[in-house]
DNA sequence: GTCTATAATTCGATAGAC
DNA sequence: GTCTATCGAATTATAGAC
């Protein structure tokens, strides 16, 4: 929340911390968890490597801080039901193009168990909660959320990680047109018997 | 030297080579490229680490040999057009469950540029070629193949890598029912205007 | 708060005996 | 073909001077 904050003035180290986190996100996104070294991150942030350890304790602690993420999903109850898929794809694409944190998380989740756990938490909690706003069966809700995650993460994986040419060259609007009906059916479609 | 003799008999080292490749696939699939060490792979195969170097030259060479992969896509021209999506999902799921090579490739592609390049090659060549059997516009064909890849790789990523609970718990048959219509539309649907 | 120096591992790769 | 020994490099993390 806002703070019952005493006259706490911003510490001078806050700027340094922010620079470290920014560099960390870039490196983790570009190189993955194990290839992104504390030395390289510190060099990018133009500070000494030991400062990273001082501020974040360990490489895992640094990643945990750098990979903090909120999907910022819109309130789905205020979206016309027929446009749920479109709104959701567009939101994810915008969220991805504008913030490399999710790319860092995605890449790291492939090899780092902690990152995978965090990814599970984000989608299990935030996405499933959003889907649960219209639907009663918990099992079906979880499955719908999982299917949406499979398409959305596959989109990110092929576009930002593996960089399949046709997925890189296609504009966000075109991707939305193709993928929206998929999410729409996963969200609201009749379950197959 | 000795042999102009093509009746090549199996060398004794072939068994060793096969054991190395099997262990390599397991380790690359479980740990990714950088965490899978030559030492660990050799230990699994119960041989000396230096033998791996002798046979495959380098870690990259070992991965290149271990990640050789063929999607073994069926001939899509002999499939009823309305069932293309179903046939394709079922094929991919079977191919994935039965051979961990693709999981190894998927995990490694997240952090290793060479593995990503191989992944691009597999989907750009094999999958695009299969899609090209029905369709004339090369750009549209590539896009259809890319979209199929995004859903199929997203399925694999959420089920085998991140292990999202709802995607792990769902049976292959149920997954086919949900995902088949998606692939069907990506393959044969009218392009959005 | 910042930096130097270094400990303690671990890895890929090489050399060479047998 | 197989193994021992080891090199050289890179990493995270710590200790301590200033």
Automatic annotation (TrEMBL), chains A, B:
SUPFAM superfamilies, per database record: Homeodomain-like (SSF46689), Tetracyclin repressor-like, C-terminal domain (SSF48498)
Start-end of DNA-binding region: 37-56
InterPro entries: Homeodomain-like_sf, HTH-type_TetR-like_transc_reg, HTH_TetR, Tet_transcr_reg_TetR-rel_C_sf, TetR_C_16
Residue ranges of domain HTH tetR-type in the record: 14-74
Pfam families: TetR_C_16 (PF17920), TetR_N (PF00440)
Keywords noted in UniProt: DNA-binding
PROSITE patterns: HTH_TETR_2
Domain of life: Bacteria
Protein name per its UniProtKB record: TetR family transcriptional regulator
Lineage, uppermost ranks: Bacteria, Bacillati, Actinomycetota, Actinomycetes, Micromonosporales
């Amino acid at each position: 929340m806002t703070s019952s904050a005493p006259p706490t003035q911003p510490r001078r180290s806050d700027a340094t911390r922010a620079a470290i986190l920014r560099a960390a996100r870039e490196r983790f996104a570009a190189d993955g968890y194990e290839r992104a070294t504390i030395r390289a991150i510190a060099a990018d942030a133009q500070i000494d490597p030991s400062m990273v350890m001082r501020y974040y304790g360990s490489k895992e602690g640094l990643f945990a801080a750098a990979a903090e993420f909120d999907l910022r999903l819109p309130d789905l109850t205020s979206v016309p039901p027929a446009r749920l898929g479109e709104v959701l794809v567009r939101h994810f694409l915008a969220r991805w193009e504008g913030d490399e944190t999710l790319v860092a998380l995605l890449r790291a989740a492939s090899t780092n168990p902690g990152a995978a756990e965090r990814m599970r938490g984000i989608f299990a909690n935030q996405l499933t909660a959003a889907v649960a706003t219209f639907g009663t069966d918990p099992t079906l809700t979880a499955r719908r959320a999982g299917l949406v995650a499979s398409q959305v993460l596959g989109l990110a994986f092929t576009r930002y990680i593996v960089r399949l040419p046709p997925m890189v060259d296609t504009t966000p609007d075109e991707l939305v047109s193709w993928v929206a009906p998929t999410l729409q059916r996963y969200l609201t479609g009749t379950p197959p018997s």
